Amino acid sequence: MYLDHCVGCHGISGDGRGAAAARLLTKPRDFRQGTFKFRSTAPGWPPTDDDLMRVTTQGIPYTSMQPYGDLPVEDRLAVVQYIKTFSRRWRGAPAPAVLPLPAEPSDARTPDGVEKGRVAYGRGMCKQCHGVAGDAKGVMAHALIDDWGAHTRPADFTLGMFKSGPRRIDAVRTIITGLSGTAMVSFADVLDDGEAWYLVAYLCSLARPIETREHLAALLLARDYPDEFARHVGAPTPENARDLALRGSDIDAEKQCVKCHSVGSMPARRSNDWHVAHFADPRSVVPLSRMPAFPSLFDADGALNADGLATIAYIQATALPDPRSIGSEY
Ligand code: HEC
Ligand code: HEC
Ligand code: HEC
Q1: 98 beta partners
Q2: How far is the CA of 30 from the centre of ligand 3 (A)?
């Protein structure tokens, strides 16, 4: 299972240095330390099997860690056990204790709840990293290096996105447990009971209105590839976004993607950097892939060119969730 699906990113020895890793913006987890972000356990503890299953099944949205929910459950359980063999942390260790999560206060989804969240956001100094407006532009944002030596971007709440999972309780869990290996520490000890729910209500309220999938796709591309986007497209305005996706649909026909894909048949949700790695070297992310590489989507130095940006914008415009429904998912 691991060799068929995971090795291209996480590497043969579990060190996170598979063939695709160099092209990915968020680096694949190095499994050797046993340090994991999305846990239900206290900081410093390894995740539970359920945590590893949840990540494997749901993936980590907006990163190349895709959901593997289509694989049979026995296969997912098996690959999770296999991942654990890369680290000593599980050998002979007691089962990790799960941190209890507070119950949702009854007023968490009211304007009052959002206001309490705003106050807690100020008191918790969240803005230092996430920014006053929640746009990931806090004063410390540029200086955050994770335990694996990579720059980590704080979450940008204006895009209405959560890597932790699709429900409010997933973000609550992150605030309580922290994301080990990153600057996002546990706030369990400083928050009053239930306050994490108010915080999440406030974070959800920061999502800016985005009307179309094309616009959301352009905002995410401009965030992930700022230099390329500025050079070839300009600003991620709704108008530029529409033109870019349209242009992508022409390229689709031009490059004869339709020889193998019927029009509009690539709706799976993948991150931008997943597509970059896939177009540059399909087998680096899908080990058994029979799709050819498309070097024409890149400049000589490997950076996305105008066609590359347009092609990804077009795919994402069909694959991303309708941005007007994002808030209602929570
Ligand atoms: C296309 C690249 C890619 C492939 C293929 C891939 N992963 Fe990942 N995986 C990632 C990235 C990137 C991260 C780190 C995301 C982050 O730190 O936000 C990750 C993180 C993880 C994590 C750690 C989550 C945490 O809480 O820290 C687990 C567990 C995981 N992957 C399991 C798997 C399994 C199992 C497979 C194969 C079935 C797999 N991955 C295949 C890219 C990939
Ligand atoms: C010192 C910097 C720092 C501070 C302070 C901080 N965060 Fe974070 N936070 C981060 C980083 C970095 C990430 C992203 C980690 C990653 O994705 O690997 C993050 C991620 C998150 C996430 C996960 C978002 C997702 O996509 O699932 C939530 C929720 C969050 N922070 C809430 C808060 C709240 C609420 C506060 C204040 C109580 C806070 N953070 C304070 C750095 C910080
Ligand atoms: C020779 C046939 C062939 C051509 C031509 C081709 N593809 Fe593919 N494509 C495949 C196959 C086979 C897969 C499934 C394996 C994989 O994911 O690599 C695939 C998968 C994909 C996926 C991943 C779908 C997902 O989410 O899992 C995307 C996106 C994609 N192709 C886009 C394109 C685009 C855009 C073009 C034109 C520039 C193109 N393909 C041309 C055969 C082809």
Answers
A1: 41
A2: 28
Residues in the chain: 330
CA atoms within 13 A on the CB side of 50: 7
Q: Look at the domain 2-89 and name its fold.
A: Cytochrome Bc1 Complex; Chain D, domain 2 (1.10.760)
Radius of gyration of the chain from Cα atoms?
20
User: What letter would DSSP give residue 317?
Assistant: H
| CATH architecture under which domain 111-208 falls | Orthogonal Bundle (1.10)
Would you say the CB of residue 196 lies under 6 angstroms from ligand 2? no
Contact assessment for residue 39 and residue 170, using Cβ atoms and an 8 Å cutoff: no
Other beta carbons less than 10 A from residue 140's beta carbon? 14
Q: Per the confidence metrics, is the pTM higher than 0.90?
A: yes
Question: Which ligand places an atom closest to the C-alpha of 75?
Answer: 1
Per-residue pLDDT of the chain (330 residues; tens, 9 = 90+): 999 999 999 999 999 999 999 999 999 999 999 999 999 999 989 999 999 999 999 999 889 999 999 999 999 999 999 999 999 998 888 888 899 999 999 999 999 999 999 999 999 999 999 999 999 999 999 999 999 999 999 999 998 879 998 889 999 999 999 999 999 999 999 999 899 999 999 999 999 888 899 999 999 999 999 999 999 999 999 999 999 999 998 887 677 788 888 766 666 789 999 999 999 999 999 988 999 999 999 999 999 999 999 999 999 998 887 777 655 444
Rounded distance from Cα 260 to ligand 3 centre (Å): 7
Burial class (CB in 10 A: 0-12, 13-18, 19+), 30: buried
Q: Where are the domains positioned within the chain?
A: 2-89, 111-208, 213-327
Q: What Cα–Cα distance (Å) separates residue 198 from each residue in 108, 120, 141, 167, 244? A: 5, 8, 23, 14, 38
